[in-house]
Amino acid sequence: MTAPADGSLRRFSLAIDAMGGDRAPDCVLDGLELAAERHPQAQFLLLGDETRLREALARRPRAAKICVVRHAPDTISGDMKPTQALRQGRKSSMRLAIDAVACGEAAGVVSAGNTGALMALAKIVIKTMPEISRPALAAIAPSMRGDVVMLDLGANVQCDARNLVEFAIMGDAFARAVLGLPSPTIGLLNVGSEELKGDDRVREAADVLRDSHAGLNFHGFVEGHDISAGTVDVVVTDGFTGNVALKTGEGVYKLMRDLLKQVFTSTIPARMGYLLARPALERLREWMDPRRYNGAILLGLNGVVVKSHGGTDATGFAHAVDVAMDMVTHGFTQTIRESLSRLAATPATATPAPASPTIAAQQD
Amino acid sequence: MTAPADGSLRRFSLAIDAMGGDRAPDCVLDGLELAAERHPQAQFLLLGDETRLREALARRPRAAKICVVRHAPDTISGDMKPTQALRQGRKSSMRLAIDAVACGEAAGVVSAGNTGALMALAKIVIKTMPEISRPALAAIAPSMRGDVVMLDLGANVQCDARNLVEFAIMGDAFARAVLGLPSPTIGLLNVGSEELKGDDRVREAADVLRDSHAGLNFHGFVEGHDISAGTVDVVVTDGFTGNVALKTGEGVYKLMRDLLKQVFTSTIPARMGYLLARPALERLREWMDPRRYNGAILLGLNGVVVKSHGGTDATGFAHAVDVAMDMVTHGFTQTIRESLSRLAATPATATPAPASPTIAAQQD
Question: Which value does ipTM take for this structure?
Answer without folding.
Answer: 0.85
